[in-house]
Amino acid sequence: MTTPEFAENRDNFCYRHPDRQSFVLCQRCLRTICPECQTQAAVGVICPECIAAERKNRTPAQKRAARRWGTRPAMAAVRSGKPVVTYTLLLVTSIIGLLQMVPGMGGVITGALRFNALYLYPQFALLPFEPWRSLTAVFAHAGFIHLALNMLALWMLGQSLEPMLGRARFLALYLISGFGGSVAVALLAPGMFTVGASGAIFGLMAALLIIGRHIGANVTGILVILGINFVFGFVVGGIAWQAHLGGAVIGALVAFILTRTRRREQRTHQILLLSAVVVALVLTIAFVPPLLISTVYS
User: Fold this and answer.
1) What is the Cα–Cα distance from 57 to 235, expressed in whole angstroms?
2) Catalytic residue among 244, 275, 294, 298
3) Residue 2 phi, psi (nearest 5)
4) Residue 298: active-site member
5) Residue 254: strand, helix, or coil
6) Can you give the pTM of this predicted structure?
7) Going from the N-terminus, what domains does the chain have, and what CATH number goes with each?
8) Are 92 and 104 contacting, i.e. CB atoms less than 8 angstroms apart?
9) Catalytic pick among 146, 160, 198, 275
10) 33 — phi, psi (to 5°)?
11) Is 294 a catalytic residue?
């Protein structure tokens, strides 16, 4: 369901398919286009009309190069609008999760991917300095139910968010949110071992809430779901609610940046702001007071 203001604003819908909601603009004419109308180009996505105009103005040499290198099939694949990043994340995470269930392999894989703040501060324990675990933990899970629930959420959220944001932005949102979840664990629960994509998933839910509110959609449903999941994390033991909190906060921040830097001329600002978020997260865990961890190993 949507509000009247949302339905009346035609900028929220594809100009070629007025019944299809979208959050992506053609980088040439700046009109809203749905996944079916998107063609990937060097400057971003382009609508069919701009593609046709570009092809019409191509030189003979450019036409020969296009025929030689076969660019049309690649363009057709992008035009299909399939959430490729979502499917890729599902595939990679599911393969890793299933391998974790294989006897003799699960312990090795989990041990290689799981996150603990002590991997960032080896001076407090006999663990190597392995900061990349703050991201690799997103791809590991603690059992089939844990994996299945997170992958179901990723599939449902990715179907909506990736077409609206575009592949690169969606991937950035997912990874930065997952990183934010690990940072929150390092700050609020030093010494805890964690695995799972929950931080990234909560980031997607928070992003959907922010984007939906920005375009005037009815966000009551996603707000209720987000609230229920937060409470569930606090009530049920063994769940790293810290990762949920960190992922949601960072996901909301990333979505806020994306909604305020939609235009083509704002792309540099968007990249700089997203980079600033990552740098801020790195600095946060780099200069965390040693007391947070020393209290665990005092």
Assistant:
1) 62
2) 244
3) -135, 160
4) no
5) helix
6) 0.72
7) 4-79 (no CATH), 84-294 (1.20.1540.10)
8) no
9) 198
10) -135, 145
11) no
